[in-house]
Amino acid sequence: INNCENHLGHKYRVPNIYNYLQNRVYFNMIGNVPFLSLRPDPLSRTGNKMMKRAFDIVFSLLFLCTLFPIILLIVTIITKLTMPGPVFFKQKRNGLNDKEFYCYKFRSMRVNTQADSLQATKDDPRKTRWGNIMRKTSIDELPQFINVLLGDMSVVGPRPHMLKHTEEYSKLINKYMVRHFVKPGITGWSQVTGYRGETKELKDMEGRIRGDIWYIEHWSFGLDLFIIYKTVMNAIHGEKNAY
């Protein structure tokens, strides 16, 4: 190094990682210690995590204290008049670092034994007419703001999957588990870019996972706001994959 610099030469060194890594790597620092990572990870930074969590708390509190009681009253009355059983539906799903939690929804189907194993389909006979309306307008997802306030979810992030799906797809899709590096969300990048709803073929889930990883690598507060805006617009105009 001294010889190069004393003779106007530049010294560079390429880390010998290409025998086992073909993808791009990213240079980072922890204090004075340099390290290479496989992908950019904005939400690993404390400031970004605090900003996202603060937004989640404020947003969910505002919704739960204003619109949610009215929606809950309406949903409760119609649900009790149209189908027997509880108003809420809870299901174990995988969250941050693959931790299991109960995800809350308004019940949109008749009580059935396949709720934790069979994904909803377009003409699913388990759905009621009222349940179909809730799913089309995403009203059934609104109780998940309780999950956000509890810290199990975020307003925006990869959608949480049922345990059976995580077990199956983690064996079939490379890097599937990367989506669990961040909290799951009520809505997400994949959902507003065409990968919402039933995954009929493996390529549908692969597309969703690519979108989830893209979101993790490109997160910004502005991106979250854009996804929320797109979600609201899609709910107003209706989505063909919302069923």
Question: What do these coordinates show?
Answer:
- The chain is α+β, with helices and mostly antiparallel strands and 243 residues long.
- It is built from nine helices and six strands; from the N terminus they run αββααββααβαβααα.
- The protein has a two-stranded antiparallel sheet with strand order 1-2. A two-stranded antiparallel ribbon has the order 3-4. It has a two-stranded parallel sheet with strand order 5-6.
- Helix 2 packs across helix 5.
- The longest helix has 20 residues.
- The protein is elongated.
- The chain starts with a helix and ends in a 6-residue tail after the last helix.
- The relative contact order is 0.12.
- The mean pLDDT is 90.
